[in-house]
Each structure stands twice: as C-alpha cells, then as structure tokens.
Amino acid sequence: MLFDIFGPFEISLTNNTITKEDITEFIENVEAENNGLTKAYGCYLFAIRASRGYTPWYVGKTEKNTFAKEVFTVHKLSIYKDYIHRKGTPVFFFIPKLTPAGYFEGRSRGGKEIDFLETLLIGRVMKKNPDVANIRKTKVFKEMMVPGIINSSKGKKSNSVNLFLKAIGGE
What we know:
Helix content is about 35%, strand content about 20%. By secondary structure, the chain is of the alpha+beta class. The protein is built from six helices and five strands.
C-alpha cells in the first residue's frame, strides 16, 4: 500500500472559471512534470494558495476513473466554482497509489486503501478548515468526541487521558 504526494499544481482560470481549455492545459502541464500521474488512481486535494499558505477545500478519490477523468467531472467543477473566486490561486495535490516497484498504479486497484486514505485526509483537512466542501465522511469528525484524540473540550486533561496519550505516543 504505497502512496506518494505530488503538487501543488496550479490551474489557470478563464474569467474566474475552469474551462475545457484550462483543464486540457492543466493535464498537459501535470503530465509534462510527472508522466503518467493523470492516468493514476488515488486521492487528491483541491486548495486555494494565498499569502498565508493553503486553505484546503475538497478531498476526493479516484477508484474507478483516473485523476484526469475524475477531478474535472461536472459535479467536481460545481464544487470548485464556489471557492475559485476567493483570493489566491487554485491548486491540486495528487496522492496516487503506487505499485510495489514505485510506479503509478495504472489500473483501479486498492479501493479499500484509497477509501481509507480519503477518510483520513478529510479528518486532517477538517482540523485546518472545518468548512471543507466534503459532505460525506465529515459527520464523524464533527460529532465524535474522545478526550485528547478528537474534538476535546478545552481545559486540563484527566490523568487517564494523559497516560493514554503517552501510551499511544501522543502529546
């Protein structure tokens, strides 16, 4: 279960919109830098880069389609349009599944691993941006509370919580 991280890759906008021409140019640029990446499978992150860093807005996965086919579906473009008008540059990060030899996985395999990684990434993104556009897989990260682990209340942790965190290599 090998994955790697590539990006950020900027996408050009035409009149504050992602056009077919912008998508074609984007795919060509990504392929020029990383041959085969847009034909791979895995997870991806859409974010806006501004002077204060990156604001993550959407985490997606590709299990049946390649990055090139999945990232720019009509549904995904409708999500991005709500964020591309914000100050900054829209970017994508790709986290492709790799073969044991380190090549991009060229066939749809590893759905369970990719699904797990997407869930994990959504949880991490929600720590930075609770207003992430994802709807699925966010409820547990919003509603679950485990002291010292997720959505802890402010204040001093109990001795049990501190010892537990020490036992698992936490804070």
